[in-house]
Amino acid sequence: MTSAGATTAVDRFRELSDGDPEIQAHGRYFSCTYLLDMIEHRFLVRMHRGEVEELVTDPGPLEPYDFAIRAGRETWEGFCSEVPPPMCHGIWSATFQRDMTLEGNHLVIMQNLRVLTRQLELLRITGPLG
Amino acid sequence: MSTASHDDVVGRYVRVEVEGAEYDVFYLEAGQGQPLVCQHTAGCHNHQWRELLRDPDITSRYRVIAYDLPRHGKSDPPNNTEWWTSEYRLTTDHFTGFVVAFCDALALDDPIFMGSSFGGNVALDLAHRRPDRFRAVIPVEGADHAPGFFLDWWQHPHANAAQVSASGTWDLMAPQSPLADRWKTWFYYTQGSEAFRGDLYYYSVDHDLRGRLHEIDTDRCPVVMLTGEYDYLTTPEDGRRTADGIPGAEFLEMSEIGHFPMSENYPRFKTYLEQALDSIATKTGGGAG
């Protein structure tokens, strides 16, 4: 079940990503599926050539993905704030110094690191998706 | 008459020999006075010091010299070896030997050495090994030990190494730093991926001063450490712990800045750098400062 607030943030995230000049300029090979394991919900982000093809809240147990990004509430709240506090300000800092984990196929993360980094920074605008 | 608007920074090459390797080393310099030798971060080049080199508040008192370490920027790999037949792994012996040989080649008298990241670590190694050769050192984002970054991802053939190196270091900068300067730093990092991993062998593996910090003699070579609060690799805690282990060392935590302070936000870095330079001038009996 998805709350109204989460739906709003999800829609905003999708809108920002598909309208982002940097992702549009550099994301034509950005095709992969990843999971954001956030505070109350999990979000499956399916990317195709730089566009959000599908964004599923609380996907079923057998939905496949290439990699997952997981963290606790405090880390996600910091990560998704307008000016993140030290060590919450990116997936590298939060995995090195906080409780964020990157699970799955790391090669896909590295292959898409440039645009993925930009896309995740859009969470500073939307706040946590839920 | 030319109407070109030049600044005072000039670039030159100098021949340097280290452990049998012969290098043609490119360096930028500006200013007059106390030599201030600057080392860029791993996998990067001397343009990280672009604003320091153009800052008359500094260059009116200091001769700022920022070189490209061999295999970086315009400094080629060694002229006299088949370097392409072996894996590049920078060692403490080679790195410290290079810095001393470079300073000797330029006949620098009592220079201050400043470096960031692996340059911060080598500043500590220089203070430890050659306090006779340097007036003082300023380790920026340095620590006694900095594990965790000697990774194959920097050169993985199935990923875009330039982008991995550049975006893999993006989080090392503070979100408050000007976006244009963060992107310049990112851009420099796309140019150095082939050397990055080998540099990090020194940074994360070969450099290790744990248990030996007390051997650094700050009466002979003062140490002023600077670390940014957004640095997740050598955190302020790492910097403070390292400085606490060196009798007489100073430590300044820099707010709202990360691992590439001179490149990501020079105006903010400058406020801390001036404190460090003033402290060194006081400790070493005037001059510059």
Automatic annotation (TrEMBL), chain A:
Domain of life per record: Bacteria
Protein name in UniProt: SCP-2 sterol transfer family protein
Source taxonomy: Bacteria, Bacillati, Actinomycetota, Actinomycetes, Pseudonocardiales
UniProtKB/TrEMBL annotation, chain B:
InterPro entries given in the database record: AB_hydrolase_1 (IPR000073), AB_hydrolase_fold (IPR029058), AB_hydrolase_sf (IPR050266)
Origin superkingdom: Bacteria
AB hydrolase-1 domain ranges (all copies): 35-265
Chain segments annotated as transmembrane: none
GO cellular component: membrane
UniProt-recorded Gene Ontology molecular function terms: hydrolase activity
Keyword terms: Hydrolase
PANTHER family, per the entry: AB HYDROLASE SUPERFAMILY PROTEIN YCLE, MONOACYLGLYCEROL LIPASE
Descriptive protein name: Pimeloyl-ACP methyl ester carboxylesterase
